[in-house]
Amino acid sequence: MPAAVAEILAALSQGYTSRTPLRLRAIDAYMAFCAVAALVQLVYCAAAGSFPYNAFLAGFGSAAACFVFAAALRIKSDPRNAAQFRGTPEGAFAEFVFCHIALHFVVANFLG
After folding, report:
1. What is the pTM assigned to this prediction?
2. Does the CA dihedral 53-57-63-64 come out positive or negative?
3. Separation of alpha carbons 63 and 42, rounded Å
4. pLDDT more than 70, % of the chain
């Protein structure tokens, strides 16, 4: 059974790297980073406590929002979705940057 699982994972990895453009793989890596950052903050809050609760909420919310913004960027940048979304990948990236700037102003104000 483990050999079959290894074959499936190898085929999945090979298919992902061969069919997914480098730009989308970079966005996927950023999304994985955001998810791991949110998970680490959640585990830390559960283990060590949440004394500065607004700091936890700001950090966790920021990581979750960054993940959502990256997901929107990935969807709009995928060439297979070009018929569903008007605009260019550069415009989607501009939206992504603007949303990040607005998000970090909100987070900085929330922290005090």
Report:
1. 0.87
2. positive
3. 11
4. 98
